[in-house]
Amino acid sequence: MELIVTEIVKIIKSETNIIKREKAIAFFFLNLIRELMSLALERVDQELSGSMKNQGYQIEKKNQRSINMAFGEVTYVRRRYVKAGQESRYPLDKFMGFDKYKHYSVLAVRNILEVSSVATYRNTALAVNCLSGFNISHAQIGNLVKTAGQKIKEQQEADSRYDAQTAKKQVPVLYLEGDGVMIKGTQGRLEFHRYQVCEGLRNVTYKRRERTNAQEFVSLSRLDALNEAKEYIANTYDLANTLIISNADGGAGYAKKDFDEIVGRCAKHEHFLDVFHLNKKIKDRLCFAPELQGKLIYALEFKYDRDLVNIILDTAESKLIDELDTPQNHEHLARLRSYINRRWDDIKPFKMRNLKVTKAIGSCESNHRKYTYRVKGQGKYWSEAGAEGMLRILTCIKNRDLEQWLNSDFEAGKLISLDHKKLLAAARDSLKRRHEIHVGIQHGALTAEVAGGSYLAKLDRMLNHIKY
């Protein structure tokens, strides 16, 4: 400790510039941590050798490796173990969670991904390079996002995801919502799909409330997101006595029948047409009669009176004269009538359904912001792999389980391919010629019970002069 303090004092006295002095101190501490970590890893590797030898493995050689951890790049030496008919192993790498061919630790990846969820790749690279002990480019960050997103997706879609879960929860009510959002892609427009589930609302402050036990499922594939939500509900809840309340815009994939597919059997299912989209539809279709828009919204969402609605629509039709008498306006009005008639049951207001539960629907549109602020605007264009990766990361952050998925030991989507690789590695390993331990060249001497000038004595001196 005294030597470390002495070195720090020396650095402080040697620099007069304040910024350079602090940089030098930071550099000293980073190097110190790296050296200590390298020594600690080598000691752990040495301690693991006993258990490996007990399993029949032998040390083949020692290899050096560098890994970027949260505090900087660490270079260390670890043992490689081999066993006939088995794949070679680096027990230290497995113990520390350092993946093969990867240059970043799990914590470093988690930190990078969390910053990239609120900043562009270039700004993320700038932040990481300034605040961490290693450098990374924006292209490398993009690759990390794609790789992590693919790994998370494979694990979330795995059949074995809920194998360890046995008991199911019983709740009086469960709320479901879903919607899609368009974004720009490098090969055309992309749409990501969101389903959210919660058990209700709780008061955080006097004016602010939040959803309880909320989970979100997001993917570029609607069927993938739907199936994940379906599997989650089926393995988490017992819906025999549960009221299901769903809310959506009624578009393709978001009708009542789609939510019936998600929940399966339940005590009762009440579906609502999302008020935001209903109001938007009315304003778009009645653009030629803005004075009637508020009246129609009132008749639908507060009175729920079909006769009053028809009167307002007839009034709107009577205004289609002179310059308003266009085929487009007639089509808008006809489509609005059809839209209201098709979704009349779903439009019925919450208060008129005699549901003795809290109204906890209608937040789907506002909850898009976590995603749209990152993937839309500022000229952003996404590849499918990049968009899927970023959406998966944003979803994990929203669900507060990013570390869980990054820290998981299993990758169900790769189990078969890994087994196949192990078999190939074992076959190659069995064909290798192993290095056999030998005692080397034996040195000897010729002796004979004769005089030194005999021919045997001369031969002995000649052999001893040969350099083996």
UniProtKB/TrEMBL annotation:
State the Pfam families in the record: UPF0236 (PF06782)
InterPro entries, alphabetically?
UPF0236 (IPR009620)
Query: Family, per the entry?
Result: Belongs to the UPF0236 family.
- List, alphabetically, the NCBIfam families matched: transpos_ISLre2 (NF033529)
Q: What is this protein called?
A: Transposase
Q: Which organism is it from?
A: Lactobacillus acetotolerans
